[in-house]
Amino acid sequence: MTRRSCAIYATGIVCAHLLIVGIALVVAQVFQTMIHSRLKKEITLTEKSQMFESWKNPPPPVYMEYYFFNVTNSEVFLAGGKAAVKQIGPYTYREYRPRENVTFLENGTKLYALNPKTFVFVPEKSAGDPEVDIIRTVNIPFVAIMNELNSYSFILRTLVSIYMNSLGIEMFMSRTVHEVLWGFKDPLLSKVHSMKPDVDEYFGLMWKKNGTHEGEFVFHTGEENYMDYGKIDTWNGLREMSWWSSNRSNMINGTDGAVFHPLINRNELLYIFAADLCRSIHLAYVKDVEVKGIQAYRFAPPNDVLMSPKENPTNAGFCVPAGDCLGTGLLKVSVCREGAPIVVSFPHFYQADPMYINAIDGLSPNKEEHETYLDLQPTTGVPIRACKRAQLNIILKRVQGFPKTKYITETIFPIMFVNETATIDDDSASQMRTLLLIVTLVSNFPLLIVGLGIILLLVLVVLFCRNRQKKTVKDDTAYTQVSDKPDEPSETPASQPMRNGSYIAMSPVEAQKC
After folding, report:
1. Residue 258: which of 380, 383, 418 has the closest Cα?
2. Are the C-beta atoms of 341 and 143 separated by less than 8 Å?
3. 5: exposed, middle or buried (C-beta count within 10 Å: 0-12, 13-18, 19+)?
4. Which of 88, 190, 253, 424 would be 271's cystine partner, CB 3.0–4.6 Å?
5. Averaging pLDDT over each range in 3-7, 128-132, 429-433, 481-485, which range is the top one?
6. pLDDT per residue as tens digits for the range 135-152
7. What is the count of structural domains for the chain?
């Protein structure tokens, strides 16, 4: 057997083995299963102090952009006309949110943590100076007192109204952005504080929220089930709330939005518990996106999250008292936040009933600027970009005994909205791309084996064809015997010598003379 034949046989044997093994691995999905198992076990096998380091101190910077609705015609509104507002901002703050007091519980299956938040003003990302810029907005302490007295007698409401007029307190106030956001000593609350010390005499939308946390959380680590990774077990010791009017609405579902389980698919709903909204919300897949070279799935709250109970009966539990419901796009959170009748929506009443948008001049909702979404890397479940957008509103309506409300039309009045954004930093993005490349190569290793087998198959075909071709050429040019018969005398010229045996079929050529 020649070397060429050996090479052909060897190539064929290797090719057959590669194809058989590769196809078997592809069909059995051995490497994909191995990678998935590794991702699932990573939660339990990796040293926990390293695994939770980025969770404890998130590297991506988080920015809070505050936009305010400056009221331009408060007198017209009080006289019964339509209010007009003008958006100003953003006033941007860097948010620092480390996890503190991290403690593993129940053999590492659960994790206790606090999440204090600190805000630092970022002037280069802001539209103005919050300590200088003045806005005109609803006097929320005034509305809170008026709303609290709504259940009292008409005479008491009238007396309080007269007293408030004597102090020069109006339904609208003019304050700096810093005061409205971070707090000021309110004259009306100061009077109430003197009679009821438990009432704080300071008011601000973010009063006492700089450097504080939203409660005590206990999370699942995913050691028992990777699908539970990051899910909230208890919040402030509660597994369910009691503010809403149905068991389903009171459920604490999902994570806090910082982490999700690995191996996310497009068909599932992701749940987030938002402590500032006092409820859980779900996100649905929207589309595939790319962030800094990383492929991700975009999830966003679907329309049914804040849909009216008439259109989505499951939301009836968020009507408190039962049956007292607002329209599509609104959520009344005053049930869990004592005081003013606060309502939450998406900015500019995005996805809300058009009647709320048309009630105020100056609103223009659009998806690009006002949608809340979360971009997740599906293999790891890590958020790589997030935009959480929410608007704070207050219900203004007529209250008997308060003449200042005599002519106003009941309105869901916008105060401000916040755009909380975070995007993975460049170093983390580079590490993520490297990790995903390794995962991709390992997952597709069986395909590489099949591909190599196909290449060797092509080489085998080429070698086989060339070998056949050379054999054919050799057969065509080989020496052939003219006759096998024994020599017989023949009539030949006497001058030519006799030839013994067979001879090659070539015509004799006379010798050339010199």
Report:
1. 383
2. yes
3. exposed
4. 253
5. 128-132
6. 999 999 999 999 888 888
7. 2
> pTM for this one?
0.79
- Let me know whether 346 and 282 are in one domain: yes
Type and span of the H or E element at 174 = strand 172-176
With a CB cutoff of 8 Å and minimum separation 6, the contacts of 361 are 82, 83, 84, 85
Name the β-bridge partners of 240: 251
| Per-residue pLDDT tens digits for 80-123 | 999 999 999 999 999 998 888 888 888 888 889 998 999 999 99
For the stretch 278-310, pLDDT in tens is 899 999 999 999 999 999 999 999 999 999 999
Residues 95 and 183 in one domain: yes
Residues 419, 389 contacting (CB under 8 angstroms)? yes
Alpha-helix residue ranges (DSSP H) falling in 79-195? 140-148, 154-166, 177-182, 187-195
Range of the domain at 18: 1-42
What are the contacts of 462-466 at 24+ separation with CB within 8 A?
463/4, 463/7, 463/8, 463/11, 464/8
484 exposed, middle or buried (CB, 10 Å; 0-12, 13-18, 19+)?
exposed
**Spatial distance between the Cα atoms of 51 and 44, rounded to a whole number of angstroms:** 10
What would the two tokens of residue 475 be?
């057969």
Query: Which of 440, 462, 482 is the endpoint of a domain?
Result: 440
If asked whether residues 33 and 106 sit together in one domain, one would say: no
Last residue of a domain, one of 412, 440, 468: 440
- 274 and 346 together in one domain: yes
In this structure, the dihedral spanned by the alpha carbons of residues 449, 450, 451 and 456, taken in order and rounded to 10 degrees, is 90
Residue whose token pair is 């052939």: 480
Q: Are 98 and 57 a contacting pair, CB within 8 Å? A: yes
Longest dimension (CA), the chain: 161
Determine contact, residues 176/68, Cβ cutoff 8 Å: no
Statement to judge: residues 1 and 70 lie in one domain: no
Say if residue 221 is in the same domain as residue 349.
yes
Element (H, E) at 118: strand 118-121
The token pair at 281 is 């919300």
Same domain, 366 and 257: yes
Here the tokens at position 488 are 């017989």
- Residues 15, 107, single domain; the answer is no
3-state secondary structure of 385: strand
The helix (H) or strand (E) run that includes residue 20 is helix 3-28
Task: Count Cα atoms within 13 angstroms, Cβ side, for 180.
Answer: 26
What secondary structure letter does DSSP report for 226?
Answer: G
Lowest-confidence segment of 15-24, 142-151, 211-220, 243-252 by average pLDDT = 15-24
Helix and strand element counts for the chain (H, E): 13, 20
- Give the closest residue to 372 by CA, choosing from 397, 345, 398: 345
Amino acid letter, residue 188: L
Q: Which two tokens stand for residue 392?
A: 């704070």
